[in-house]
């Protein structure tokens, strides 16, 4: 087996894909504006992420689990997403997703893009309906850092061999921990503190940064 050369770990909502999936679920529940406002404040770092997640998920109580199929059709990969994963694989890299969103959609996105690792939240469903609660470990900023380190260790990589990318305040610790940390079309607080920035919605630009760093 060839040794893994590196690892990219990225956020999902507003990074891998254009949308915030929780906001789409909120729209389907008829509380789209309220949910979007909480998301925006959480991503700017104004609210505790777990509290903001609980508050938004509570608004989804009673929705049918069929909602995931409906919402999945409304999700769009950002430009260059699949090409980036394919190119990194060609170069011997692994790719992981860490998301404050939900396995119900993130697993499908990962499969479609050919991603190696996934960590996301689980929405509780009982008798075919969302209960308005999440279960299991919540993917916080600390969990994002933990998965970056864990997946690097699994592949016998140093943190200097890793890339981390995201757009929100909860991605910052992961971005600052990785060898190459990238703010992707990010909130001001993230752009100010990330070592690298991509301000155009084109994920393939990660390759430009990688090539520049590796010169």
UniProtKB/TrEMBL annotation:
Superkingdom to which the source organism belongs: Bacteria
One Gene Ontology molecular-function label: hydrolase activity
Catalysed reaction equations from the record: O-phospho-D-serine + H2O = D-serine + phosphate; O-phospho-L-serine + H2O = L-serine + phosphate
Keywords attached to this entry: Amino-acid biosynthesis, Hydrolase, Magnesium, Metal-binding, Serine biosynthesis
Enzyme class: hydrolase
Record flagged with keyword Amino-acid biosynthesis: yes
Enzyme Commission no: 3.1.3.3
Pathway note: Amino-acid biosynthesis; L-serine biosynthesis; L-serine from 3-phospho-D-glycerate: step 3/3
Reported cofactor(s): Mg(2+)
Family statement drawn from the similarity comment of this UniProt entry: Belongs to the HAD-like hydrolase superfamily. SerB family.
Identification of the protein by name: phosphoserine phosphatase
